[in-house]
Every structure is written in structure tokens, then in C-alpha cells.
Design brief:
Layout: E1 2-12, E2 26-35, E3 38-44, E4 53-56, E5 61-64, E6 66-68, H1 80-87, H2 97-106, H3 109-125, E7 128-131, E8 133-134, H4 141-152, E9 158-163, H5 174-189, E10 195-200, H6 207-219, E11 223-228, H7 236-242, E12 247-250, H8 256-263, E13 268-271, H9 273-279, H10 286-291, E14 296-298, H11 312-322, H12 327-341, E15 358-361, H13 368-371, E16 378-382
This protein binds N-(iminomethyl)-L-glutamic acid and fe (iii) ion (FE).
Fe (iii) ion (FE) binds near residues 70, 72, 227 and 303.
């Protein structure tokens, strides 16, 4: 099966060897051929090629599909009341997580699956062609397994987050909970999940606890990621670099030394402006990360507590408006940056051989993603079959 997309006004490939020679790999008046789910040709619109199907982009911009490398999609219930108190000045401290755990534990598999599918559909409609999905709202053995199974029915990028917080029933004995996470829970998770994550911050897990959990996860064959520095400059970034985590996520507060460590590592900084928006926290300066030479990804962090956001264009717009990133930097971070955060080279670009995951915009230039916030900027989402 081949699809030839013609009349592309502005094509962003994220491949510097294509087009204008910049990291955005940009061409104008372009066309692209997808065959058997892969990019097989990129070039000038004047070239006529045979295909099974033709799409006329009518001068619109085309970009690689968004890679949302950080979501907590599998949950039940909502916490808009907490959002309202935060807008009135209350600080977010992670305290509401157990409300979602209670609602999620109480839900049937059918309901949980249905609600997850609605959010996955919203993400896809916003142009997301790859989404990472975490567990973390059951925090018991059977429940975490159920969340991972549901996540795996929507994505190959599944993350075990048993170490989200210590659940109520274990607060008097957190060691016993950590033993459960690195024991039975991890043992169940390792055949379903690709990644393990830990919330390493005040009120969640300490750096030493996170190191133990990540070490056990690595031993079990999982790749590593970390939630860190959402509440302050702790040691999470240094730990993520030490453990060669694929990414350290949030990074709302970072020191110059954190940036230096990140710049000389393979760990991506995943910034989540939906969380700053929804918690009224200060936005981190994306500019500071980029100027320090750090690889930056942007993701939604979709969850009911800190970022009930299912729109990558909104995330791009926030990064441009509030985090001093250019439109191109934000677009790159939301596509190729997300792919780097998942250590994937087959997505996030439209290089020859990459997956044919792309978005045709309702706009002549990709800049409209930030220029028309809240607008209907996504026209067609093409996603190669997995
Ligand atoms: O990434 N910070 C930790 N976990 C989520 C929020 C969880 C919640 O409040 O439900 C996050 O922001
Ligand atoms: Fe998160």
C-alpha cells in the first residue's frame, strides 16, 4: 500500500540532509511517498510518482507526527476542584494522587479501558502518532498489572510507575511498599512494560529510594525514566544522568550544574508546560536548556491532577509563548525530541526509512501551531500500522 502526498506548501522532515540543510530539514512545494508504512521518497512537487492512493495537501504544511513521550492516560475520575483551588493560589504538592488511585482502583476494566480510549483518541486527533503511557494510579500488584495491560493495548511505549507515591496503606511502612514495587509488582510488569519510572521529589521518593528502584528495574530488563525537579532542585537530574535514564521529566527547577550534567549525557530533558499551566508553577526556560546544549522534548503529561491536556499543539504554543523557545525548537522538541526521549530513531522524523507518521495541517506553515492557539490546526493524521 503506497500513499503519495502532493502539493505540500511547507514540509518539515527533521532530517538535516533533506531540503534547507537546517535541523528542521525543510522543503517548500514538496511531495512525499509513504509505502508499507515507511517514508520511501521525499522531493519536489513537480515529480510524478505512481501510488495506490493520492492526497492533495492543497499547499498546507506537513510535519512529522507528534511523539508524546509522557502521559498517564489510564485513570478514572477527575480533580477539577483541585485545579480551581490552585488557580486561587493553593500550591500543588502531589497530595491529590490518592484520590485518583481510589477512583481507578474502584473502576471496572471496561470503564477504565473506555475512558483511556477517549483520551487516546483526543491525543491522536491532536496529531500524536506515538504516545508513551504510564501506570501508577493503582499502586497494588493486581491493579498496576491491569493498568499496564490496558496501556499496552494502546501503545508499545508502556511505563511501569508503581513508584508514583507510597499509597496510604503503606505510609507507616514505606520500606514494605518499596519491597513490593521492586518485588512482585516489577516481576509482573517486566513482561508488559518497556520502561520503569519513579516520581523522585519531595512527598514522593527520595534520590536513594529512586536509585534502588531504578536499579532493580534495570536488572529486570526495563529502560529507565524519571520524574524529577517538579517541586525544587533536588538530586533527581543528577540521578537520571548517573543511571542513564532516557529522560528526566518536568525539570521545572534546575541548577546550572544539572544542565551541565544533562548536556554531557544521553538523558533528554522532557519539559511539560501543561503541568506549569495547570499548577500555576513558573515555566522552566526552554532557552536555558537549549543554550546549555541539552536535548529537550515536549510532552503533555496528560493526567487528572497536574495537566489534563490532550493537545500537543497547545504544548507547542505554551513552549513558544512562555518558555522562550522558537516555533521550530518547540516543533522539533515535540517530534524528534520525543523520539529521543523514547530512544527511537524510526519516529519523530520523515527521513527515508522512517515510519510514515505525519500530520497535514490546516495551515500553510507549521508556525500556525503556536500562532493560532486553540484553533483547529490539525487536518489529517497519518499513522503507519504497527
Ligand atoms: O507528572 N508528578 C507526578 N505525577 C503526575 C501528577 C499526578 C497527579 O497529581 O495525579 C505528574 O505531574
Ligand atoms: Fe507525569
Amino acid at each position: 500500500m503506497s500513499i503519495f502526498i502532493r502539493n505540500i506548501g511547507e514540509l518539515t522532515t527533521n532530517d538535516p540532509s533533506i531540503g534547507d540543510g537546517t535541523v528542521m530539514g525543510r522543503l517548500h512545494n514538496a511531495a512525499i511517498m509513504i509505502s508499507e508504512g515507511r517514508v520511501v521518497w521525499v522531493g519536489n512537487n513537480d515529480t510524478e510518482l505512481e501510488a495506490d492512493e493520492y492526497i492533495d495537501a492543497e499547499g498546507a504544511a506537513v510535519i512529522p507526527g507528534f511523539v508524546d513521550s509522557h502521559t498517564h492516560l489510564v485513570f478514572c475520575g477527575e480533580r477539577s476542584d483541585e485545579f480551581e483551588t490552585r488557580m486561587a493560589g493553593k500550591r500543588y504538592d502531589g497530595g491529590g494522587i490518592m484520590r485518583t488511585v481510589d477512583a481507578t482502583r474502584a473502576a471496572s476494566r471496561e470503564v477504565l479501558n473506555h475512558e483511556t480510549s477517549l483520551r487516546a483518541e483526543e491525543l491522536r486527533a491532536s496529531g500524536v502518532t506515538t504516545m508513551e503511557i504510564k501506570s501508577g494510579y493503582a499502586l497494588n500488584v493486581q491493579g498496576e498489572q491491569r493498568l499496564l495491560e490496558i496501556a499496552a493495548s494502546f501503545s508499545d511505549e508502556v511505563t511501569f510507575l508503581g513508584a508514583h507515591v507510597v499509597p496510604q496503606e503503606f505510609v507507616v511502612n514505606r520500606e514494605a511498599y518499596i519491597a513490593l514495587v521492586i518485588g512482585e509488582m516489577l516481576n509482573n510488569a517486566k513482561s508488559i512494560a518497556k520502561w520503569a519510572d519513579v516520581f523522585c521529589d519531595n512527598g514522593a521518593f527520595s534520590v536513594d529510594e529512586a536509585r534502588r528502584i531504578l536499579s532493580a528495574a534495570r536488572e529486570a530488563g526495563l529502560g529507565l525514566r524519571l520524574h524529577g525537579n517538579q517541586f525544587g532542585e533536588g538530586g533527581a537530574v543528577a540521578l537520571a544522568v548517573e543511571m542513564d535514564c532516557a529522560s528526566v521529566d518536568h525539570c521545572t527547577y534546575v541548577s546550572d550544574n544539572d544542565l551541565k550534567l544533562l548536556a554531557s549525557s544521553n538523558t533528554v530533558a522532557t519539559l511539560l508546560p501543561g503541568a506549569e499551566f495547570s499548577t500555576k508553577s513558573p515555566y522552566p526556560s526552554g532557552r536555558r536548556f537549549l543554550d546549555a546544549g541539552v536535548t529537550v522534548a515536549l510532552a503533555t503529561d496528560c493526567n487528572p491532577g497536574t495537566s489534563y491536556v490532550t493537545s500537543m499543539p497547545l504544548v507547542v504554543a505554551l513552549a513558544v509563548r512562555e518558555m522562550n523557545m522558537t516555533v521550530d525548537e518547540a516543533l522539533w522538541a515535540a517530534t524528534a525530541g520525543g523520539a529521543a526521549a523514547l530512544r527511537r530513531s524510526d519516529i519523530g522524523t520523515l527521513s527515508l526509512g522512517a515510519r510514515g507518521d505525519l500530520v497535514i495541517l490546516n495551515a500553510p506553515r507549521a508556525a500556525h501551531l503556536a500562532y493560532r492557539p486553540g484553533g483547529n490546526v490539525v487536518r489529517t493524521v497519518l499513522r503507519s500500522a504497527r
